[in-house]
Amino acid sequence: MEGPAGALEALVDAPKLEPGTSPRGVAVIAHPHPLFGGTMDNKVVQTVARAFVLSGWQAVRFNFRGVGGSAGVYDEGRGELADLLAVVQAQAVQGPLALAGFSFGAFVTSHAVAALWQQRQLERVVLVGTAASRFAVAPLAPELHERALVLHGETDDTVPLQDVLQWARPQSLPITVIPGVGHFFHGQLPLLRGLVVRHLQGVSGAA
Known about the structure:
Oligomer: single chain
CATH topology: Rossmann fold
Number of strands: 9
CATH superfamily: Alpha/Beta hydrolase fold, catalytic domain
CATH architecture: 3-Layer(aba) Sandwich
Number of helices: 5
Low-confidence stretches: none
């Protein structure tokens, strides 16, 4: 698809549905830091996408500018936000929308949520390993808290849990902490998938 800096490489994973039924919506999922090996093929990103697909959503993973087959160069989050919004415009112009991200991708996703939530009904927001120690993560509107799942590993040494709590505390935003788990959820990806599925299959929060 075409993005603001040129071509954007993307993959779409579709759920298995009964004949005559449609996906619950479209989920756009953002990957970790482009300068540290982050791509749409990251295991955590794939796991989150799988959770959406298992829950009946169409999942869209994409490479930020300068990664893989995507044109352009790293832009410290500004251009990456434009990339994410371009993917939403191309793949989910209407209908139910969910946004998710891991690490740097969670930071970018937070700003996409801030840009979109008054224009679009966001059914779900999933932030994993949110990079609150390294970037200015946008707060989530109170109206979205019941629709949001923020997951963090207790022993994350890339983004200390305390930094995420400091970001969440002024918002009274709940954080789900997974004991004994690091940033990349090594050995715990099935648990991560299960927690996201449980969130997605729960009752929608009030608008």
